[in-house]
Specification:
By secondary structure, the protein is mainly β. The protein contains 2 helices and 14 strands; from the N terminus they run E-E-E-E-E-E-E-E-E-E-E-E-H-E-H-E. The chain is globular and about 40 Å long.
């Protein structure tokens, strides 16, 4: 299944990845199995978000750890008419085996501007203070992790929607359909929720 929005096609890939296509150009975020994109962006280096790095040889890669290295605050034009802002993504409330799975500085999120439309892939994150600075942006599509554990729960993700007020929200980083249903039922009055 895919979403077509103002000439932009969005398809979900793997656990938390997406393929975004516009004007014959494609950009993938956290693609593990389908690497057929003009530019591959990765949010962090956990194995369910990135393939074996050997498979990325010769590919145009952008990430906080491989290829073109980026950090929060960076802005780059990756393709004609496609500008990407790198933003913070980290945990503040999650602890797994005594450590924070996504400490500050480990990963990023991406705000993608295509022909005046804004797509925000949050990466693996909690609702963090820096997201308050994104409130002024008109986010058309929010790619939001809802699976709990090392990312936001459906309830925490709902708080992020209330803060950011996106037009459309696409849940990612979940395997249990019950998480989707719970998230949808909470936020549907405030955003259009689409399952890809």
């Amino acid at each position: 299944m895919k979403l077509i929005y103002n000439g932009i096609t969005i398809e979900r890939r793997d656990l938390a990845g997406v393929k975004i296509t516009h004007n014959g150009q494609s950009l993938c975020i956290d693609a593990v199995t389908d690497l057929n994109c003009d530019v591959l962006l990765y949010t962090h280096r956990h194995e369910n978000h990135i393939p074996n790095p050997d498979l990325l040889n010769g590919k145009r890669v952008v990430s906080p750890f491989l290829g073109m290295i980026v950090k929060p605050g960076d802005t780059l034009e990756l393709m004609s008419g496609v500008v990407v802002e790198v933003v913070d993504a980290y945990n503040i409330t999650k602890v797994v085996n005594g450590s924070i799975p996504h400490p500050k500085g480990f990963g990023v999120g991406y705000v993608i501007n295509i022909d005046g439309k804004t797509i925000y892939h949050m990466g693996d994150t909690d609702l963090v203070e820096e997201m308050g600075g994104l409130r002024k942006k008109a986010i058309n599509i929010l790619l939001i992790p809802i699976g709990g554990g090392t990312v936001m729960t459906p309830e925490e993700a709902a708080d992020a929607v209330m803060l950011l007020r996106p037009t459309t929200s696409i849940p990612i980083h979940f395997t249990d359909r019950g998480f989707f249903v719970k998230f949808r039922d909470i936020v549907q009055p405030y955003t259009q929720v689409i399952l890809l």
